[in-house]
């Protein structure tokens, strides 16, 4: 074996040894940390938007309400006779620092489509930077916690009883 090959093999195995020592030290340091649990960050400013859709007259058309990105967040439709005729109301409660909503409609010969769409407006980095001093202090003290933001969304759908049988919710 040539001398250069021996030197390169020596450097390679020294790197493996030092890498193993570093991983071992990191594991010992990490395992000595105390877990403080989960904490919710971001404001607790819950906001409720009320979206009102007025359906065209005509019992022949089917009505489809598409709640995009709300997989199983809505409950059953509540038929309320106090609502004006041909009206659908979606009440969406959410953290206003993280989301906003858009809605719209389109129609064809047999179906009217209405949709509610969610848009993420939050900035995860800024939410963590609000807590950076606390995070660094905890790390110096050998403690850590996990952080999460409140992105809970609840959707309540109300409709006039005249729309019963015609209204279909796609979530």
Could you walk me through the main structural features you see in this protein, from its secondary elements to its overall organization?
There is one protein chain. This protein is α/β, with parallel strands linked by helices and 171 residues long. The protein has helices spanning 3-31, 124-129, 132-140, and strands at 34-41, 46-54, 62-67, 78-79, 87-95, 99-107, 111-120, 143-149, 154-159, 167-170. It has a four-stranded mixed β-sheet with strand order 2-5-9-4, with no helix packed on it. Strands 6-7-3-10 form a four-stranded mixed β-sheet, with no helix packed on it. The protein is elongated and about 90 Å long.
Given as residue ranges, the uncertain stretches (5+ residues, pLDDT < 50) are none
Share of helix, binned: 25-40%
Q: How would you state the average pLDDT, rounded?
A: 81
Number of discrete helical segments: 3
Strand order, largest beta sheet: 2-5-9-4
Q: Taking Cα atoms only, what radius of gyration do you get, to the nearest Å?
A: 28 Å
The fraction of residues in strands falls at 35-45%
How far the N terminus sits from the C terminus, by CA atoms, comes to 68 Å
């Amino acid at each position: 074996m040539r001398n250069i090959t021996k030197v390169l093999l020596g450097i390679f195995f020294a790197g493996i040894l030092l890498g193993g020592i570093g991983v071992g030290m990191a594991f010992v340091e990490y395992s000595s940390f105390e877990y403080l649990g989960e904490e919710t960050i971001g404001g607790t400013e819950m906001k409720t938007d009320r979206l009102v859709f007025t359906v065209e007259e005509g019992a022949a058309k089917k009505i489809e309400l598409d709640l995009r990105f709300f997989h199983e967040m809505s409950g059953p439709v509540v038929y309320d006779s106090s609502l004006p005729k041909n009206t659908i109301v979606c009440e969406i409660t959410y953290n206003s620092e993280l989301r906003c909503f858009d809605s719209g409609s389109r129609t064809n010969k047999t179906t009217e489509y209405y949709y509610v769409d969610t848009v993420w407006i939050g900035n995860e980095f800024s939410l963590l930077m609000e807590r950076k001093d606390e995070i660094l202090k905890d790390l110096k003290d050998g403690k850590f916690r996990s952080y999460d933001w409140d992105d809970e969304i609840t959707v309540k759908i109300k409709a006039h009883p005249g729309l019963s049988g015609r209204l279909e919710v796609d979530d």
